[in-house]
Amino acid sequence: MNGKVYTYLSGYSSKLLEISADNDAVVSIRFPYSVPCMINRVLGIQGAEDGRMWVMTSTATTVGSGQIAIGKFNLSDQTMIQRRISVEPGVGSSGEAFAASGNNLSYADGVTVYCLPFD
User: Which superkingdom (predicted)?
Assistant: First the structure.
């Protein structure tokens, strides 16, 4: 996104890690503490078309428990809008997965595909 690469560090101090050609150090970007669903585990990230970052999170530190949420994280002011979802997506070879197109999200649990308009 914008010439930068992002990954995440999951856990009680979950954060994004930003790598760019302009900086020879990794920059840590913390998620806000005051969100409806606490972030104790990051399940996945994806760049959004509007320049923000989609972030799927869980309130639990282990798989299969806790509240799951999808959020849009603003990298410039570090604010996040979250929506709780009812099921934790199935785990694939690279972890939990979701896909976003515009403001619509899709994720799967077993053979069920869920679609969520994020408006």
Answer: Bacteria
Distance of CA 44 to the CA centre of its chain: 5
Rounded CA separation 117/119 (Å): 6
List alpha helices for 15-100, DSSP H: none
Q: Residue 78, SS3?
A: coil
Compute the distance between CA of residue 10 and CA of residue 66 in angstroms, rounded to an integer.
15
Left (φ > 0), alpha (ψ -120 to 50) or beta: where does 86 sit? alpha
Backbone angles phi, psi at 39, to 5 degrees: -105, 100
Mean pLDDT by 10 residues, the chain (119 residues): 86 86 88 82 89 88 77 92 82 68 85 84
* Type of residue at 103: N
pLDDT value at position 26?
92
The answer to whether the Cα torsion of 27, 32, 36, 41 is positive or negative is: positive
